[in-house]
TrEMBL record, chain A:
Cellular component annotations (GO), alphabetically ordered: plasma membrane
Compartments, as annotated in UniProt: Cell membrane
Topology of this chain in the membrane: Multi-pass membrane protein
Molecular function, one GO term: transmembrane transporter activity
Native organism: Pelagimonas phthalicica
Name by which UniProt lists this protein: Ribose transport system permease protein RbsC
Keywords, alphabetical: Cell membrane, Membrane, Transmembrane, Transmembrane helix
Gene behind the chain: rbsC
Automatic annotation (TrEMBL), chain B:
Record-linked PANTHER family: CARBOHYDRATE TRANSPORT ATP-BINDING PROTEIN MG119-RELATED, SUGAR ABC TRANSPORTER ATP-BINDING PROTEIN
Name of the molecule in the record: Ribose import ATP-binding protein RbsA
Domain ABC transporter: 5-249
One Gene Ontology molecular-function label: ATP hydrolysis activity
């Protein structure tokens, strides 16, 4: 053994300070790449700011006014809330196709419990929120305990929930006037208030708070770190002591709860309870998440990115409409943005670029 | 002396493949037990069975005289058995500190921890930095860098540091020096001695015979899913051990 000890002994005289290197890629691209790698929400933020500036230059005060800018917030509030739920699920390397259906059935439960069974509106809303959470938890149980792929589970759940929604509501809309007269609390998230020229709704404030709370929870609590770890590598997370099953079920359940809140906000936005509303929320929420830079493979990205992604869609939609462009141009540009966002994501992931 | 960790008649089958065939296992208090064996001999299955990563089909595991049935690594960890897996079990996108405290995060004292459940990042980072410094992992520049930006050896060092910092009854190391450089290997071997001197027994799985013979108090030779024999490294040479585990030589009967 003495021979082996000698060559190893040489190493004991080595330096003991923490290594540091000259940053060789001092160039702008290198630093920019590093910033993007550590702060993934930066890309959508840059795109958002650029889009606002460009439309502001093209349209002037028609676009660049407190009224128009807050109108965007109102228009994206539902998608923004649903996209927050979608972000949580996608961070665990899953996907939730049932988000829109959960939102709609929750709003229908809130409305029908109040008007069909005459329950106090507060209890109906609590029932709607609980119902959304329960569907989410069922999704999570099927994914975590039955080991079914999230895509399949939520594809099935989407159909089941949507069909139940039509069967239960008998495709009846509860009219806006009736709600305003008998159960105004259902429209609470649509209540408007003005600050100068800016118009906000309670739903917009709810969306902003939700995003900030989730950003905090994901970054600064153990549960948030577990969500990332599960999305990154579930086996490694399990071996290093994370309750993977519990984390997954809680993520889907919370996503269900957030969708139920989106259902409540939906009543506020359209005024009535309509079982046919919110059909595009699935795709729109996934779009916001992808443009926001969250990786569909899980474990990477931030909720702020999703929020910026939702706003980008809103800015494009309103900006192009004010420009008088065909609505198809919006879809075309959003499509290009999705592909660009994923391309940027791949570039960022290259650690050794 | 009663073994601290004992297994009797462990059987684990994966479909038609038998990984463990009525395998016995004993770890004495305060010792370093090396487990050696050919590839596919069932070493990893044995380790997974005692560390809770797989549930054996038959057989019993006893920790400090109490029969235990771990259904997950979390339970084994709570019982004081800490394992460094060959795959290292780390989340690549998360930071070193996040990984070291995965599943046992520290919360801030006071209201921010209790009501906001905020993590105590400064304390976690300091602890992680101290442990890495103890291990001599000075080439890690930033404790907040993502694990995916570390080299293979650095990752291994972080995983070993994590186990050494938290293991209370048994530490299991699956190929701890496989990816390490000379200096880092030496540090890990020193760390193993250091952990042993604190009275914590260690199970060391390794193909590196010089390391095994240097450290181990006893060597468990695994062959075809069971314990072939247990030898004292002072009584046999490395060639003998290799001959036993490959079946080139009859194993000694009294072990």
């Amino acid at each position: 053994m003495s021979q082996t000890d000698q060559y190893e002994a040489v190493a004991s005289g080595s330096k003991s300070e923490i290594a540091s290197f000259e940053d060789t890629r001092k160039g702008f691209v290198g630093r920019f790449h590093h910033a993007l790698h550590t702060t993934p929400a930066l890309v959508p933020l840059i795109v958002l700011v650029a889009a606002i500036i460009i439309f502001g230059l093209l349209l002037g005060s028609k676009f660049f006014s407190p009224f128009a800018l807050t109108l965007i917030l109102q228009q994206v509030q539902i998608v923004g809330i649903v996209a927050a739920a979608q972000s949580l699920v996608i961070l665990t390397a899953g996907i939730d196709l049932s988000v829109g259906a959960i939102a709609v059935i929750s709003s229908v439960v809130m409305g029908q419990f109040t008007f069909r069974y005459g329950l106090p509106v507060e209890i109906s809303i609590a029932c709607g929120l609980a119902f959304g959470t329960a569907i989410g938890a069922l999704n999570g149980w099927l994914v975590a305990a039955m080991k079914l792929p999230p895509f399949i589970v939520t594809l099935g759940m989407w159909q089941i929930v949507l069909a139940s929604n039509f069967l239960y509501s008998a495709n009846e809309t509860i009219r806006s006037q009736d709600i305003a007269a008998n159960a105004p609390l259902l429209q609470l998230l649509g209540a408007k208030f003005k600050i100068g020229g800016a118009v906000f709704t309670v739903g917009v404030i709810f969306m902003l708070c939700l995003v900030l709370i989730l950003a905090y929870v994901l970054r600064h609590t153990a549960w948030g770190r577990h969500v990332y770890a599960v999305g990154d590598d579930p086996e490694a997370a399990e071996l290093s002591g994370v309750n993977v099953k519990g984390t997954l079920i809680s993520v889907y359940a919370i996503a269900g709860l957030i969708c139920a809140f989106a259902g409540w906000a939906l009543i506020g936005r359209i005024g009535s309870v309509s079982p046919t509303s919110g059909q595009l929320l699935n795709i729109e929420s996934i779009t916001a998440v992808v443009i926001g830079g969250i990786s569909l493979f899980g474990g990477r990205g931030s909720i702020l990115g999703t929020f910026f992604g939702a706003l980008i869609v809103g800015v494009f939609t309103l900006g192009l409409r004010l420009l008088g462009a065909d609505a198809q141009w919006t879809f075309l540009l959003i499509g290009a943005l999705i592909i660009a966002a994923v391309a940027v994501d791949q570039w960022i992931r290259k650690v050794a670029a | 002396m009663e073994p601290i960790l004992k297994a009797r008649g462990l059987v684990k089958r994966y479909g038609k493949v038998t990984a463990l065939d009525h395998c016995d296992f004993d770890l004495m208090p305060g010792e370093i037990l090396a487990v050696i064996g050919d590839n596919g001999a069932g070493k990893s299955s044995l380790i997974k069975a005692v560390s809770g990563a797989v549930t054996p089909d038959e057989g019993t595991v006893t920790l400090e005289g109490q029969e235990v049935r771990f259904s997950s690594p979390i339970e084994a960890r709570e019982a004081g058995i800490e394992t460094v897996y060959q795959t290292l079990a780390m989340s690549p996108a998360l930071s070193i500190a996040d990984n070291m405290f995965m599943g046992r995060e520290l919360r801030r004292p006071g209201w921010r921890g209790r009501y906001l459940r905020q993590l105590d990042r400064p304390a976690m980072e300091k602890f992680a930095r101290d442990k890495l410094t103890e291990l001599g992992l000075m080439t890690i520049q930033n404790i907040n860098q993502a694990v995916e930006t570390l080299s293979g050896g650095q990752r291994q060092g972080v995983a070993v540091a994590r186990a050494a910092a938290f293991g209370s009854k048994v530490i299991i190391l699956d190929e701890p020096t496989a990816a390490l450089g000379v200096k880092e290997s030496r540090k890990v071997l020193e760390l193993i001695q250091d952990v042993k001197s604190r009275g914590i027994p260690i199970i060391l799985i390794s193909h590196n015979m010089p390391h095994v013979f240097e450290l181990a108090d006893r060597i468990h030779v695994h062959r075809l899913g069971k314990r072939l024999c247990v030898i004292d490294p002072k009584d046999y040479t490395m060639s003998d051990a290799v001959a036993f585990m490959t079946g080139a030589k009859e194993a000694p009967q009294a072990a």
